[in-house]
Amino acid sequence: MTLLGCGSKASEDNSTEDQNTEKLDRRVFVSKAQFERSKMALGHIELKSFPITVQSSGMIDVPPENRAVVSATMGGYIKTIPLLIGDKVRKGQVLLTLENPDFIRLQQDYMEVNEKLTFLKSEYERQKTMMSEHITSQKSFLKAESIYKTTLATYNGLRKQLRLLNISPSQVESGNVTSVVRMYAPISGSVTKVNVSRGTYVSPASSIMEIINNDHIHLELSVFEKDIMKLKKGQEINFKVPESSADVFAAEVHLIGTAIEDNRTIKVHGHLKNEEQAHFLPGMFVEAEIITDTTEVHAISETAVVAIENAHLLLKLNEITDDAYYFDQVSVKTGSTYNGKVALTEMPGVTTEDTILTKGAFHLLGGD
């Protein structure tokens, strides 16, 4: 009986030792040397303010006043067009020259009308004086007045046409007639389109080139109808250009459209907070989040959570010895991310008091 008792006790001790060994085997072991060499870090779950956002997409654009399409007032043939796409121009700079014989005929008509007007004005004033002295008939006065005012209207119309063609009326009056006119830049900016080449005939309806001024750019976003009531002026916008970089930029809601588009969206106009941050170009596609409210959630650094298949794991500190750290794996459920933090929607088995491995967990667990 004594021998059997001793054997039973020895068996029980071995079983307990095996259970303890099994428990230690399930923990994640990290030596202090490895911890320091890999620059791992510890932290805690914190209560953080997370934004409630509305997802949207859109593009970088410029105000209509910063976009100009250059077209001819009268048709003509391109004589010179020295600019290329990407060239910068300043307001008033010569963009191209047009040539057309009709320009000469217009100037001739103006010169003829100008010469007639001097005589007709003199005749009108003479008839007016004679009418006041009852020397001439009212019919003669009205005829002189009609001819003078009709010719004056023609004169003013031709003068305006010359100015639209950038031809100086005073130069024409001096006898300087030209078949070539210059076209000037209506705004400062960069040439984004050139639709013609030398010798091309252009009509007043033709678009010769386009100039865009990038000094002020903005966001044009489309928000779905279901989210319209959540929007208001002044809300913050976080956006990125996915085709260009992963950087996130800041803007704010400036205007909200008042009409629903055919695709059940509404236009939202956003102003960038720092336009000099990046080299944005009109037409760039953007993905944006409009922050409509905030909520308090439990959160931790994104690097603390490791995704393995359909699970998300944290490493909770279990024990510290002289030369090692021991961690337990804890399964959690995650929500949205913000500023490098991830929200924890469910976290059984871990509290804000527990110490978590916030940096280096991925390499230990080998997540996706």
Automatic annotation (TrEMBL):
<feature type="region of interest" description="Disordered">
    <location>
        <begin position="1"/>
        <end position="22"/>
    </location>
</feature>
<dbReference type="Pfam" id="PF25973">
    <property type="entry name" value="BSH_CzcB"/>
</dbReference>
<comment type="similarity">
    <text>Belongs to the membrane fusion protein (MFP) (TC 8.A.1) family.</text>
</comment>
<dbReference type="InterPro" id="IPR006143">
    <property type="entry name" value="RND_pump_MFP"/>
</dbReference>
<protein>
    <submittedName>
        <fullName>Membrane fusion protein, cobalt-zinc-cadmium efflux system</fullName>
    </submittedName>
</protein>
<dbReference type="InterPro" id="IPR058792">
    <property type="entry name" value="Beta-barrel_RND_2"/>
</dbReference>
<feature type="domain" description="CzcB-like barrel-sandwich hybrid">
    <location>
        <begin position="68"/>
        <end position="211"/>
    </location>
</feature>
<keyword id="KW-0813">Transport</keyword>
<dbReference type="InterPro" id="IPR051909">
    <property type="entry name" value="MFP_Cation_Efflux"/>
</dbReference>
<feature type="domain" description="CusB-like beta-barrel">
    <location>
        <begin position="219"/>
        <end position="290"/>
    </location>
</feature>
<dbReference type="InterPro" id="IPR058647">
    <property type="entry name" value="BSH_CzcB-like"/>
</dbReference>
<dbReference type="Pfam" id="PF25954">
    <property type="entry name" value="Beta-barrel_RND_2"/>
</dbReference>
